[in-house]
């Protein structure tokens, strides 16, 4: 595969900043390919957490990679992506890249895809290449199962994709809605755990039993006839009930591979407690361990958080943030380099 794109005017003395929001993976629709097409995903782009990097062309003919302390572990992947892009495009001008923040790795928030796309977009802009996320993702080995992170990078919102029709082909976007601005997402983090990724993820998927066609039909029915109409009409209760039902079915199917419906039992206890007392769409994003409770308003989310803390349901190892859905994709901005 090669990437060449359409040349733009390169800003040699400028710094490009790419900021990519995180996403929640709300569930697969048919991981067993009961009709011949595998996976299919529902996902939501969220505000408040992101991967951000600055990049410019090097002034001394050498590459420079840097990061804030919390992001240093990601630098080898940044360098690997740059090497891949150079091989594919033929552009080898040295670059300076600094990671300003990253999404938590292996936490179910799409960190790998967003890192690859931020690096890819920065590289393309610096070298005058007009390349989209859909072009960059397969080149950087992203989008093999879900297209939510790629579409979310470009457009934000609540997204449904149709699963890939074959290896190396990105899943098509079937539906994209703006997420209601007043609804909120409570994120529950367990930083002591990580979700499955890489070879472990592939092994876990291969070891799962056949996904029942009836469960796939139920997941598709929930998505098409309950979750999406509720978002279109801003009806929170059926949306929350639909998401919780979708998550319950998928969570039970993956439970053997991840040690339960939730990768983190502590996260699971918090969400079950909230789900029993509030109207909320609860579940785990991807392999977790990050869990979520989608609620109707900021006030409702804050009340639930206070109540859970007062009841001592939120253990010392957990973090909680309340964020919004985001109806826009990544941002790319230019600034003058300081010399």
UniProtKB/TrEMBL annotation:
All residue ranges annotated as the GHMP kinase N-terminal domain in the record: 80-145
Annotated GO MF terms: ATP binding; kinase activity
Signal peptide (from-to): none
Record keywords: Kinase, Plasmid, Transferase
Domain GHMP kinase C-terminal: 228-309
Keyword Kinase set for record: yes
Protein name: Beta-ribofuranosylaminobenzene 5'-phosphate synthase family
